[in-house]
Amino acid sequence: MKIPSAQSQRGSVLVTALVFGVIGGFMLGGYLMLIQTRSVQTHRSLAWNSALTVVEAGIEEAFTHLQVDANSPTNNNWTAGQVNGQTVYWKRRDLPDGSYFYVTNSGVSSGQPVIQSRGFVRAPLRSNEYISRLVRVTLTRPSSSFNKAIVVNTSISFGGSATIVDSFNSNIAPYTNTVHGTNGGLATNSKQSGALDVQSADVYGTVTTGPGGVVATGSSGTVGDVAWNATQTGIEPGWVADDMNISFLNNSLPPGVTWFPTTIKGPTALNTGYYTLTKTSMSGSDTLTITGKVVLYLTDDFNMTGNAFIRVSSGSSLTIYGGASTVKFAGQGIINDTGVAANVTYLGLPTNTKVDYSGGSAFIGTINAPQAAVSTSGNSGFYGAVIANSFNATGGSNFHYDEALGVTGTTGNATPLLTSYLEL
Question: Rounded distance, CA 220 to CA 200, Å?
Fold first, then answer.
């Protein structure tokens, strides 16, 4: 029998150690690669999630563009371009961490705009490489109640001296009597002949009745565009229709509101809040100044006379709920220092059947009183829109529809609402 020498044993130990060392090296290398892979995946995952944040920053920018720049879509560094024959507006914004987004708005003048936003974030452990994500958002502009100057269920009539019914867009410029917009539309559900009676008014806009209805015009009344109103009388061909058939929704008080009783006696001021009037008339030195966002509920018949007035200060808004049968704004009326019709809103509840405005100040606002006979008199003027059961104007008071109250095309100012969100 051959006994192994010590040298042979030492060689075996060395080989064994070498084998285990190699195996350990492979295991350590594999472990280090696993750690590196997981580190890269973690950083990549963070970058991937961050890219969506950048995408949504682009979407927010596009929302602002649709709301603020609707009438001037190349404002604020937006660039116009063409994609498949369609005009689009795009923008790039670079962020402090080196990420950036490209965002595109299309259909900005429609009721269904589309936003596409692509966000770029630096790829982890790589130079000059980016991870990107793309999202498409579709939107809709909610319908406005005020798409015409005056809309009623029964009759519209203009009496007294010559009256102008036209339009302007307060989002673009204040009204001027040298330029007559032609969106001052009048409409009634009535099918009765003469339910829409223009008389001697010059209407720069369309007139619409219920099926079979007939529009009446006086010897000098006109309906049509600027050229027609300048040289013709009667109704311009193509500017009359008889397809009106809509239902008016009832107004209701906002739910869950605590109303605070208030009395207007002498100079009075109301700040942001909900109030009911415990005194149902204003006269003499009674004045009301509105600051902030004020909602006023008239529970009983209301009458304003003498030198009384309601003033809506700049940067403020007033909403009036008329629950009384009769509401009369005479005296100096409602003075809207904001100059924006959307900031003064009158909402007639189903119990409100009569609204009169004969104040010494022009009414700049909207009246939505589907059950009420609404009338205006004097020559102070009306800037806004009306929904009523009937409407009657006397005394030569001109009516200027504010197109900014509508939503179609670039005249709309309604906040777009999201209808779909899809990552591409």
Answer: 5
Task: Say if strands 354-357 and 363-376 run parallel, antiparallel, or are unpaired.
Answer: parallel
Do residues 300 and 327 make contact, with C-beta atoms less than 8 angstroms apart? no
Q: What is the phi/psi pair of residue 69, to 5°?
A: -105, 25
Inter-CA distances, 118 with 23, 102, 127, 134, 192, Å = 47, 5, 20, 4, 57
Radius of gyration of the chain (CA): 34
User: How far are the Cα atoms of 38, 47, 102, 116, 125 from residue 121, in angstroms, in the given order?
Assistant: 19, 6, 12, 17, 12
**CA neighbor of 103 nearest in space, from 71, 123, 68, 133:** 133
Residue 163 CA to chain centroid, in angstroms? 30
Buried/exposed code over 137-164 (b: 16+ C-beta within 10 A; e: otherwise): bebbbeebbbbbbbbbbebbbbbbeebb
Tell the burial category of 113 from Cβ atoms under 10 Å away from its Cβ (0-12, 13-18, 19+). Answer: buried
Pairwise CA distance, residues 139 & 60, whole Å: 13
CA nearest to 289, candidates 267, 260, 322, 305: 267
Taking only the tens place, the pLDDT of each residue in 214-271 is 999 888 889 999 999 999 999 999 999 998 888 888 999 988 889 999 988 889 999 9
Closest CA to 107 of 62, 68, 151: 62
How far from each other are the two terminal CA atoms of the chain, in whole angstroms? 79
Cβ 236 vs Cβ 261: under 8 Å: no
Phi-psi domain of 205 (left: phi exceeds 0; alpha: psi -120 through 50; beta: other): left
Q: Which two tokens stand for residue 37?
A: 């892979």
Do 210 and 190 touch, CB atoms closer than 8 A?
yes
pLDDT surpassing 70 at residue 7:
no
Give the separation between CA 224 and CA 238, rounded to whole angstroms.
9
- What is the average per-residue pLDDT within 381-397? 90
Distance CA 252, CA 384 (A): 21
Report the alpha-carbon distance of residue 103 to residue 88 in Å, rounded.
10
Q: Which two tokens stand for residue 202?
A: 């010059």
* Domain ranges within the chain, ordered by starting residue: 11-143+415-423, 150-406
